[in-house]
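This follows on from our talk about sequence and fold. Go ahead and set the record down below:
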Amino acid sequence: MDNVTVATHTLLTTQHSSIISYSPKDVKLLKRKGVIINGLGDGEEVSNMFNKIVKNVYMSEDFRYSDLDEKVNDYYENPWCKWKAKLKHDYFNTPWSTIAFSATAVGVICTIIEAVNSFKNDTGRL
């Protein structure tokens, strides 16, 4: 019964903040974490059910998790967090892309240092 309560609060918080639309991938994650028990079949049916449920939910101001909901909304609206999440999702989604970027950055820094040292040495001879 506790899983149902957690799922209900998750649904309500999600509807109130309008951040997440449940997808079959979300259902799979919630099931794997033990938040929900899927008795309907595939994740598509469950995600459709969640989305229909939260569509008509009204939240009162004394909602139990209103402080958490406010923090989630503040975090979601922060441009720095959006930029960081997009950067991680689009460009650094694998360890290899992070390693390649780091190696490139080290190469560029070494090239700049070498160019500065070369310029200093050339101007010192005149």
Notes: Residues 84 and 90 are 10 Å apart (CA to CA). Residues 1-60 form one domain.
